[in-house]
Amino acid sequence: MKRNVELVVISDVHLGTYGCKAKELLRYLNSIQPKTLVLNGDIIDIWQFKKSYFPKPHLKVIKKIISFATKNTNVYYITGNHDEMFRKFTDFELGKLKVCNKLCLDINHKKTWIFHGDVFDASVQHSKWIAKLGGKGYDLLIVINNVVNWFLEKMGKEKYSFSKKIKNNVKKAVKYIGDFELTASELAIDNGYDYVICGHIHQPQMREVINKKGSCIYLNSGDWIENLSALEFDQNRWTIFHYEDHKHLLKDDETEEIQDINTSDLLKIVTQFT
C-alpha cells in the first residue's frame, strides 16, 4: 500500500557515484504517491559521472521520477552545483516536470523558499576545481566506509560513519553547518518567508531560527549517500523521513516502473550532459 503524501523533498542523491544508495531510494519512492515531488539539487552527479558506471538501480530512479511526472505528480527539479549543467534548461517544462534554480511555494498559507544552497559555498562559487577534488575525496571516503560497514555487519556490529564522525568532531565542519543554516534562515526572514528548505550540506535538519526581524523554520532534506533522508509535508506538518527507521516496512516493488523508455536510450541522454 502506497502512502499518499502532499509534498516530498529529496536532495543530494548523487546518481552516478559509488556512494549513492539508489536501491534504497527506489524502495522509498515506490512506497509513496506524492502530489508534489521536489528534487532539490545534486540528483545526478555530473561532476563525477563515468560512462562506465551508471548501474541499473540508478537508471531506475530516473525512470521512477519520470513515471511520477507522467502521472499525477508535479515534479520540480531544482539544480545544484553537481548538476549545474542543467541550469541552461532553467524554466524548461515537460508535462508535469519543471527545471528551475529555486522554488517559491505557498504551503498551507505559509511562504516557502526552496533552493539547493551551494550559493553560500565559497569553494563552489570561486574555486570549482577545489570543490570537485573534495567531491572525489568524499566519494572515495564513502566507498571505503561501505567496505568497512560490510565487514562490521558480517561481524554483527553496528555500522560506522567516517564522515559523520569528522563533521561532528571537527570544529570547522560544525561551524560551517551552523553558519549555513543561520545564513539561509536570516535571508528567508529578511524576505518574509515562513520556511526555507535547502540541501547541499547532507545534514537533515528541522529547526526554528529567531532574530530581531522575525522567525522562520529551516529545513534540510539531507542526502541519499549516508543519512538516506527526505522531507515530507502531509496533514499540515513537516517530518523528516529516515530510511533506516522504516526500511523494514518497505518492499521492493517495480510494478510502477515506466516501460516506454529504453534503459540504453536513457543512459545516452544522461551522458550528453557530461
UniProtKB/TrEMBL annotation:
The protein's Enzyme Commission number: 3.6.1.54
Pfam assignment, any one: Metallophos
Keywords in alphabetical order: Cell inner membrane, Cell membrane, Hydrolase, Manganese, Membrane, Metal-binding
Annotated GO MF terms: hydrolase activity
Main enzyme class: hydrolase
Protein origin, superkingdom: Bacteria
SUPFAM superfamilies, per database record: Metallo-dependent phosphatases (SSF56300)
Coiled-coil residue windows: none
InterPro entries: Calcineurin-like_PHP, LpxH-like, Metallo-depent_PP-like
Domain Calcineurin-like phosphoesterase: residue ranges: 7-204
Keyword Transport (UniProt): no
PANTHER family, per database record: BLL8164 PROTEIN, UDP-2,3-DIACYLGLUCOSAMINE HYDROLASE-RELATED
This protein's name: UDP-2,3-diacylglucosamine diphosphatase
